[in-house]
Predict the structure.
Amino acid sequence: MSPKLDIAIQDTMDAIKILEEGGAEEKVSIINEIKVQMVDILNHFIDCTWGAHYMTLFNKMIIPYLDDPKVLQFVLNGPIIDDSKGNVFRGKSGTKMYKELYFYLMRVEAERIRDFLFIEFNRT
């Protein structure tokens, strides 16, 4: 697999097929690539309007592989969370969040992510 895969948009299904059917070495390579591209994956998930695609990204890539709170914080501090939509709330450090996104992200497997969200946004 090329390190220039665009997992968030074009190569999603190729990556998922390898995760489901590939050998151990291929799976490790794809998991590492997902983690490297997690900022792009999260940005695309937040902005995507195609339900099947964003749910696939969420269920197959974000839930199992989002494990770095700094990556999430970087995305939440970026322009993808649009204040003009009016349904944005802020965390302790100024990070921005949508209510629905918060509840999605609380389903991530990594306890470090859930702890970050709970502490940053002081919600359950």
User: Anything to note?
Assistant: The chain has a mean pLDDT of 90. Residues 51-65 form the longest helix (15 residues).
